[in-house]
Amino acid sequence: MRKRVACLHAHYSNIDYIESALAPYDIEFIHFVDPGLMYRVTHDERFNTEDAQNKVKEQIEWMAQCNVDGILITCTNYIALLRVDELSIPVPIIKIDEPYFETICNRSDPQIILFSNPATVAGTMERLHQYAELQQKSLNVEVMVIYNTFELFMKGQKQEYNQQISKFLQKMIKEDKIISVAQLSMVAAAQEVEQMTAKRIINPLDTLISSLVNQLKIDRKS
Q1: CB count, 10 Å around CB of 117?
Q2: Whole-angstrom Cα distance, residue 97 to residue 99?
Q3: DSSP letters of 12-73?
Q4: Which of 27, 30, 72 is closest to 220 using CA atoms?
Q5: Which residue, among 15, 9, 14, 23, has the nearest Cα to 213 in the 3D structure?
Q6: 75 closest CA partner among 28, 113, 32, 112
Q7: What pLDDT was estimated at residue 48?
Q8: What is the DSSP string of 109-134?
Q9: What tens digit of pLDDT does each residue of 94-142 get?
Q10: For 221, which DSSP code?
Q11: ∠194-199-203 over CA atoms, to 5°?
């Protein structure tokens, strides 16, 4: 039976990543895109953390009323603001970063986690360390930011953005460390470099697919 999933994104470009990755499965998506929340969090001093948390709670509760089997949140900053204990909704909430965190925590070798958007680093790493502590795992990770690239993505210059990320990744894979990218916007470049070099680059989209399919018991299309 087809499953319906509501998705909350901070940027419209995430829609294509999710739709394409899960195209083989019998699933219908309802997408909600709200870039305004993160803009206000980073630029409006009058808009505090409690205001942001209340907005996310209101959005998730609204989405849950759309006759869905699950809710997927693709923005790590939204996830960091979510207070699950204050929600009383009947559908499961899938956080894109948790399967990614699980993969990272299951590797003991030195790792480098790459970001292009500096604004997502603090929230993502805080959640990663919390997750590792709950799982009683020790982390051996280094964070690196590919500066002056995310602006290209936000301006819609995706080809230039992917080229910059790809160029950086090709340098990094020469390091004797596990490499991962922490943002959906970086997935296309990571997959391209993987194909060119045959070296795995962990990304949150690949780790999400099996988790989402298993959690919601989604069938493949016949």
Answers
A1: 23
A2: 6
A3: TTHHHHHHHHTTTBSEEEEEEE-HHHHHHHHH-TTS-HHHHHHHHHHHHHHHHTS--SEEEE
A4: 27
A5: 23
A6: 32
A7: 80
A8: S-EEEEES-GGGHHHHHHHHHHHHHH
A9: 999 999 999 999 998 999 999 999 988 988 999 999 999 999 999 999 9
A10: P
A11: 60
67: tokens are 């006759």
Q: What angle do CA 63, 41, 36 make, to 5 degrees?
A: 50
Rounded Cα gap, residues 27 and 140, in angstroms:
37
Distance CA 84, CA 131 (A): 15
Better-predicted residue by pLDDT, 202 or 155 = 202
Q: How many CB atoms lie within 10 A of CB 26?
A: 13
Q: Round to whole Å and give the CA distance between 151 and 146.
A: 11
Cα 31 from chain centre: 15
How many percent of the chain have pLDDT more than 70? 99
Query: 24-63 pLDDT, tens per residue?
Result: 999 999 999 988 777 777 677 777 888 888 888 889 999 9
**The total number of residues written for the chain in this structure:** 222
Taking CA 190 as the corner, what is the angle to CA 189 and CA 191, rounded to the nearest 5 degrees?
90
> At a CB cut-off of 8 Å and minimum separation 6, what does 187 contact?
17, 181, 203, 204, 205, 206
The burial of 136, by beta-carbon neighbours within 10 Å (0-12 exposed, 13-18 middle, 19 or more buried), is given as exposed
CB 171 within 8 A of CB 1: no
- Residue 86 CB contacts under 8 Å (≥ 6 apart), including other chains: 57
Closest to 171 in 3D by CA, of 117, 112, 124, 118: 112
What are the beta bridge partners of residue 141?
111
The amino acid at 121: V
